[in-house]
């Protein structure tokens, strides 16, 4: 299901096109991003602006920009969204349920859930019944996906593969397929050639200026990984 249909950049309100984030090549000429599929991936080199865009969208969704939903109020590590005030989201229908996952600040989110459990006794209810800190990084991610995510919602995930083994990444694809069938929308920044293989996803390449759609098999992630796996030794000798 597609709830969030367009991300529009309010270019005329950009204060300065020479500084972060307005100077990023991926954003420089970008006017709108159309989200036409239930699953949209942001791909691109490190530093191309994927997280910046995702964080801006999370900010406009009202989600905690360090990770969480509309219901997670905690002060730890809240990051200012530099792009958030300069984008406009078009919804049909409007969706307020959802979650913003940031691999890098997940530790703080887990602490916030522990604190909610300590104060109100409700913290672990959506997370598999136990502290996210008492599970491995990958297990805790998976507990979040499997327990906290449900069908009707918008899920913004920044490198969800960070803690997942290849097997768990494939399990995540199954889970995502079920959630999409139940009506979920995903926007995912990723470097994973496994996740990118999700059928019918729209892949947006942040290495282009402005951002452009790209086919799975044309992504550098697919091509490089494929060539490497075919023969790592030859690949390394080509350096
Ligand atoms: N708060 C900030 N102030 C100044 N520059 C920043 C800030 N946050 C990020 N940048 C820079 O902006 C660029 C884009 O960062 P961003 O995190 O959006 O990239 P990314 O595509 O998500 O990269 P990665 O794949 O490594 O996560 C990078 O060069 C980064 O160093």
Task: Give a brief description.
This is AAA family ATPase. With 239 residues, the protein is α/β, with parallel strands linked by helices.
Descriptive notes:
With 239 residues, the protein is α/β, with parallel strands linked by helices. The chain has 7 helices and 9 strands. A 6-stranded mixed β-sheet has the order 5-6-7-3-8-9, sandwiched between helices. The protein is globular, with a radius of gyration of 18 Å. The model has no long low-confidence stretch (mean pLDDT 85). Adenosine-5'-triphosphate (ATP) binds next to helix 2.
Structural class: alpha/beta
- Give the amount of beta strand, in percent: 15-25%
- CATH-derived topology: Rossmann fold
Radius of gyration: 18 Å
Tally of individual helices: 7
Strand order of the largest sheet: 5-6-7-3-8-9
How much helix is in the residues? 25-40%
The set of bound ligands, ions and cofactors reads: adenosine-5'-triphosphate
CATH class: Alpha Beta
Residue-averaged pLDDT, rounded?
85
- What distance lies between the first and last C-alpha atoms, to the nearest angstrom? 44 Å
Keywords: ATP-binding, Cell membrane, Ion transport, Iron, Iron transport, Membrane, Nucleotide-binding, Transport
Subcellular location: Cell membrane
Membrane topology: Peripheral membrane protein
Organism: Brevibacillus porteri
């Amino acid at each position: 299901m597609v709830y969030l249909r367009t991300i529009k950049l309010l270019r005329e309100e950009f204060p300065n096109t020479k500084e972060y984030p307005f100077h990023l090549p991926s954003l420089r000429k970008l006017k709108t991003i159309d989200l036409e599929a239930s699953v949209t991936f942001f791909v691109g080199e490190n530093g191309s602006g994927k997280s910046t865009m995702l964080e801006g969208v999370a900010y406009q969704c009202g989600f905690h920009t360090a990770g969480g939903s509309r219901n997670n109020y905690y002060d730890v590590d809240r990051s200012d969204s530099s792009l958030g005030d300069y984008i406009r989201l078009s919804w049909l229908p409007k969706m307020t349920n959802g979650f913003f996952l940031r691999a890098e600040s997940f530790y703080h989110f887990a602490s916030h859930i522990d604190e909610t459990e300590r104060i109100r006794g409700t913290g672990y209810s959506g997370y598999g019944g136990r502290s996210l800190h008492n599970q491995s990084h990958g297990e805790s991610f998976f507990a979040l996906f499997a327990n906290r995510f449900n069908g009707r919602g918008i899920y913004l995930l920044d490198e969800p593969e960070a803690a997942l083994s290849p097997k768990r990444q494939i399990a995540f694809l199954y889970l995502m397929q079920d959630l999409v069938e139940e009506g979920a929308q995903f926007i995912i920044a990723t470097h994973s050639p496994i996740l990118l293989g999700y059928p019918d996803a729209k892949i947006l390449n942040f290495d282009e200026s402005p951002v452009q759609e790209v086919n799975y098999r044309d992504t550098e992630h697919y091509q490089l990984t494929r060539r490497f796996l075919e023969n790592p030794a030859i690949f390394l000798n080509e350096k």
